[in-house]
Each structure stands twice: as structure tokens, then as C-alpha cells.
Amino acid sequence: MTTTFPDYLVWVVIAAFVATAALEGYDRDLARGVGMGAWVLFGLFWGVLFPRFAFEMRSFIEGTLCLVAVPLCVYTGYQLYTGRDSLFVLSRGVAAMGLIYVPFLTIEPLRQWIVELVSAQTNAVIHLLGYDPDFTIAEQNGYHSAFIFHDSNGHRYYTYLVLACTGIGSMSIFGGLIAAVRAPLRRKISAFAVAISIIWVLNVIRNVFISVAFGNQWFQIFVGPVTSLTGYADPKMVSFFIADRVLSQLLAVISLVVILWLVVRILPELLTVIEDVIYLVSGREYDLSQRTRADGRR
């Protein structure tokens, strides 16, 4: 896999967040300064990714989220620097997320293992549903992760799984947040097990849905509007766009909210992070635990 500028930048971002977490217990003033820099770099990272998501992948949901993340990250850094110390929890969470995710991004055998494992499970479920595509080596990465469906006219509908199809990104988010809060280890392990198991199962279902929907051209009734909107030269890509870029991504957002609700029931310490995110987005303070904060805010 070719190493790109965002791949280099993510190392710098993670190092900055790890440094922030390391400094937090020794010199909070210095940690705030480093943390602000980490959040600004994180905003730059999402800004750099925006063209890839919006124009190359034609993902309007992910492209929009990238644009929103840029000012939000910068604002988070400002709030941390000016004394909102509860944001150290979220900063530790980002550091932990990176430490979970980056090994899969940068270590080839580890990346191949998880992609091929998820691909094999996806293939097993596809066959259980009665479909029989070719399951073969992907030309793009050399992994056993490609699915080829054939129709009666001899057309091939080819999809293949990459790291983003394994759910490791979502698992890293929950793993990082769970690692960041201070709570009994038993409850943290329970919350982690619930989040990871649900994400894993839903991700396999997502891969099955996209492969089968594209391979059987389920959504071709939307050819006109989708090709006009996305500029796809091949109208057969419309079913892939609807299945992946629209339905799967919308359902993924809903699923993550539900999983977060389940995890918070086990690990209510995460409410601090949710309160901070609500404040950053809305500018209003909420006490979701219905308890008075130690500093007097509600």
C-alpha cells in the first residue's frame, strides 16, 4: 500500500494526542498547549481527507462530516486551551483510538489478516443466503477479499473489501473512548465486549448487503438521479452507490448512536464525553447524569 500524506499526518496527530495524555498528570498548562496543537492538526487531517471522500469516493455523508470536523476540532483545541479540562478525557480517547487503529493501517500482515477474516465471514453469509459469487483475490491489494457476481448477460459485478470495510474504525472509536475514562476495569471490559461484538456483526451484514445489492443490481431504478448527481459514467454503479454511500452509511450512523446508548448504560462515565460534544456543537451545558458538577455547572 502506498503511503500518502494523510498517512504520515495521522502519525503526527496521534503522537500529539499521546503527548497531551502523557503531560496531563505532570503539567496541565503545557498539556493544554500541546492538546490545542493536537486538535488543530486533527482538523487539518480531516480537511486533507475531504477531497478523497467527497470527490474520489463520492460519499456525501463522509465528505460533509469531514468539513464539519475541521472547525469543530479547532474549536475543541481552543476550549481545551482556555480551561475546559474535561476535554482531556476526549483527548485521551483520540490518542487511544489512534493506537488501536494505526497498527492495522500500517502493518501489512495485520491489515491483510483482518481484511481476509472479515471477507471470509462475509462470503460465508452470502452463501448462506443462497448466492454464489466468485470469491477471489482482489487485483487492487492482493488480498482474498473480492466478490464477483455474474448476470445472465455475462456482466461482471466486482467488489472487494479494504480496511475500511472491517469496522476497525468504529471499533477503534469505542475502544479509545472506553480506555480514556476512569472506571472499574470489569465494567470497561464489559462495555468493550458489547461494542465490539455488535459492530463486528453489523459490519459483516453491511458487507453482505452491499455485495449482494450491487451484484444483483437492486437499485437501478435510481439511475437517472444518481448519475446526474454523482457523475458516474457507468450506470451499473448506481446500485453500489445507493447500497454503500447512502443506505449503509446512514444506517451506520444510527447504529453507532444505538451502540453508544448501550455502552453508556454499562459505562456512564462516558457521559462526560457526550456532554462535552453537545457543548461544542450547541454551546449549551447539559448534565446528562442529572448530577451537579463538582465545579458548580449543571
Q: How far from one another are the termini?
A: 49 Å
Beta-strand portion reads 5-15%
Described by strand count, sense and barrel closure, the largest sheet is: 3 strands, antiparallel
Figure out the total of helices: 10
Return the domain count. 2
Radius of gyration: 21 Å
**Counted beta strands:** 3
Strand order of the largest sheet: 1-2-3
> What general form does the structure show?
elongated
Order of helices and strands: HHHHHEEEHHHHH
Mean pLDDT: 88
Which regions are unreliable across 5 or more consecutive residues at pLDDT < 50?
291-298
- Quaternary status: single chain
Q: How would you classify the helix and strand content by structural class?
A: mainly alpha
Helical percent range?
55-70%
Describe this structure in words.
The chain is mainly alpha-helical and 298 residues long. It folds into two domains: 1-106; 107-266, no CATH class. It is built from ten helices and three strands. It has helices spanning 5-24, 28-56, 60-81, 87-106, 108-128, 168-180, 185-215, 223-230, 238-266, 271-282, and strands at 134-137, 144-150, 156-160. A three-stranded antiparallel beta sheet has the order 1-2-3. Helix 2 (28-56) runs antiparallel to helix 3 (60-81) and helix 7 (185-215) packs antiparallel against helix 9.
